[in-house]
Amino acid sequence: MKKIVTFGEVLLRLTTPGNLRFSQSRDYVATFGGSETNVAVSLANFGIPTEFVTRLPDNDIARACISDLRSHGLRTDGIIYGGDRMGIYFLENGASFRNSKVVYDRSGSSFSTLRPGMIDWETIFADAGWFHWSGVAAALSQDGADTCLEALQMADRMGLTISCDLNYRKNLWKYGRTAADVMKPLVQYSDVIFGAEPEYKEILGIAPVGFKAVNTDYRLNLEGFEEVGKQVAKLVPCCRKMFLELRNSLSANHNLLAAVLYSDGSLKHTGIYDITHEVDRVGTGDAFVGGLIYGLLTYPDDDQKALDFALAASCLKNTFYGDFNLATVAEVEALMNGDSSGRVQR
Among residues 191, 135, 194, which one has the least CA distance to residue 159? Predict the structure, then answer.
């Protein structure tokens, strides 16, 4: 199997212990994460050859990060070095009716000062079959967006499947251009698009249908989601598959998840998962993306099974601390087949 390449910024994550507020905490738990990194770890954990491409400073923190990535089976040969620092994000986990909070500290990071021409995309893509990127990589600077374009043009020229997670983060778009203005031309290279409803609205101007489930009896507005798929197909003619992960948050620790897929003029959908005791919801969307790429490669003739696998993977991510989804294929398949007892396995 040809490898998958993901591209983006890996961050040092500093989390307050338990559910302490920033103002209370004197200690922080250090881990690594970031959207495209999380997707790469999921895929490597599922046994798919995966290479993560980024830019890091040449220092001990970066080396610790690379060691961590390699421990999950990721290939890191495409990582280049330069700049002065890694990006950081601080996380305060919410509880019940108090929301979680994220504070970014990534201005001037090695990745945010990446420029076109620094990465040898032709060499990296020589043995690759799939390229995945997200809107975060284009949000930090114009040079970052131009580097995304450079990678997309090479991936397209070399015949790779290209997937994009729209991944809109309003606090990152600060260099004078809107997300829609930058992302619309870049998304045109996509064979596969992922996103949440607000992201499709922000990037492509498509109004949300809505997902207000309070239990698993909720009925999806399938006609509405089919219309969203038709609009995406019209706006992005290259797109063969459009995915939406749907979430309704009843509290910081209680969420309901579902997903839909539009492809070849028809809509597929999952059931609804009711997640009542979340450990860590950060990275659940990335787990969905990683699960879908795995599913599309593993079940090429069964989009429904791929969609069900992806949502089960995303649900299981809620049970792991940190950005990375550490679920195995067997665990995901057990959940998608109805084994959700939570019993001790002896």
Answer: 191
